[in-house]
Design goal:
The chain is α/β, with parallel strands linked by helices. It has a five-stranded parallel sheet, with helices on both faces. Strands 2-1-3 form a three-stranded mixed sheet. A hairpin with a 5-residue loop joins strand 4 and strand 5. Helix 7 packs antiparallel against helix 8. The two termini are 49 Å apart.
């Protein structure tokens, strides 16, 4: 199919015909999406039916559209379309692979948030970048030019540190390197909720929970063979051999947890190695994300691995969360969590102590949005650290 280039006015650089822009104009005129899509396809096919690339003016395309609307469509749609001025403020971005796409303010803003900006500041910086692009009176920019202008605006408005985070995040996105986020914490601390939010902000499509892996293993291994696997992390000690029951309860609790975590380590390592081999990013969350898991990862390659431990440091807050589960999701057995609350609290104390001992960042999850923001900041800082280290190695 021949390439169609559109010139909006004499002297301006022609750009590829973008069907999405025409669809949006037709919808603005009152046409349903299905009809807009079909007519836009018809116009594109009519323009590109030849073998050679074609250059047409914006006026010629509008004439073709108006002629098509005059036949078989509501006359009001044609009237509305004629009253719509050609889109002059469309900024186009030329990607590294040569493809040209419209500049998306939503995507740009989303790329800023992992750097530690709240949505309001990210939106304001994106608006300033867009205004800067329009002021330069160019229609097409490269990704590098967009990044350079964004860095300038970030440094000017927020500061050098955030600007450097953005630069590192942009470099990482286009490096092809996988990102592995290990998110641990006791039951009830909000791991799955934070993991879902991080996946959305960081554009990570693969997430996995240790609870799901545990369920798979339970289906494969009988309860009589591994009883410690077929119970909760905070009651696993009750399934240990009788000699462990003579130990102090805190000691027995931790031994039970570590036994279950060790049983699951094979599945966790398998999930990690698979994602590293496929070079895709993943968030792995669960109570079984023990700091020692990092030591078992072999051949990480060029992956960037970040471990974060979540915690709810107020006992009343954590207890209230379990009560809330009972109202919204009775199948989560909130009563059992409340009955075993002391064990869960002790397990959290152990996990936080181990994280502190291992240098794993601990993030309080009293406020979900703040916990997500801090988690993203930890991730970006690790990316900056890794990329800086690699750059120093390459210059030696």
């Amino acid at each position: 199919m021949a390439k169609v280039l559109v010139r909006s006015s004499p002297g301006r650089e022609p750009v590829p015909f973008l069907r999405g822009i025409l669809i949006r104009s037709l919808q603005d005129a009152g046409m349903r999406f299905e009809e807009s899509y079909a007519l836009s396809n018809l116009i594109r096919n009519r323009l590109s039916k030849g073998k050679d690339d074609l250059e047409v003016s914006e006026r010629e395309i509008r004439k073709m559209v108006e002629e098509s609307l005059a036949v078989g469509y509501d006359p009001e749609i044609l009237t509305h379309y004629r009253n719509i001025m050609p889109v002059r403020n469309v900024i186009l971005v030329k990607r590294d692979d040569g493809q040209i796409i419209p500049f998306s303010r939503t995507t740009h803003q989303k790329r800023l948030e992992p750097c530690g900006l709240d949505p309001e500041n990210a939106a304001e910086v994106t608006a300033e970048v867009y205004a800067k692009l329009l002021a330069q009176r160019r229609q097409t920019y490269t990704l590098d030019q967009i990044r350079e202008i964004t860095q300038e605006q970030l440094e000017k408005r927020i500061g050098l540190q955030v600007s450097e985070r953005y630069r590192a995040w942009s470099r990482f996105i286009h490096s092809g390197r996988p990102l592995l986020v290990l998110l641990g914490g006791a039951p009830g601390c909000g791991k799955s909720t934070v993991a879902a939010a991080l996946a959305s902000h960081l554009d990570i499509v693969r997430t996995q929970s240790s609870d799901m892996l545990r369920e798979v293993m339970r289906m494969m291994i009988p309860k009589k063979l591994l009883p410690a696997l077929h119970t909760s992390s905070f009651t696993a000690w009750k399934k240990l051999p009788l000699e462990h029951h003579q130990e102090p309860r805190n000691v027995a609790l931790i031994n039970g947890y570590l036994t279950q975590a060790e049983l699951l380590s094979v599945a966790l390592e398998g999930a990690i190695q698979r994602t590293l081999q496929e070079r895709v990013s993943m968030i792995l969350e669960g109570v079984h994300i023990h700091p020692d898991l990092l030591r078992k990862i072999s051949n990480p390659g060029d992956a960037i691995i970040v471990t974060v431990m979540l915690g709810v440091l107020n006992a009343d807050e954590l207890r209230a969360r379990f009560k809330g589960r009972g109202k919204g999701a009775p199948d989560r057995r909130s009563r059992r969590y409340l009955e075993e609350f002391d064990a869960i609290w002790d397990l959290q104390s152990f996990l936080l102590s181990e994280a502190d001992r291992s240098g794993v960042p601990i993030i309080r999850n009293d406020d979900r949005e703040e916990a997500v923001r801090q988690s993203m900041q930890v991730i970006i800082e690790q990316i900056v650290k890794d990329l800086t280290h690699e750059q120093k190695k390459s210059t030696k």
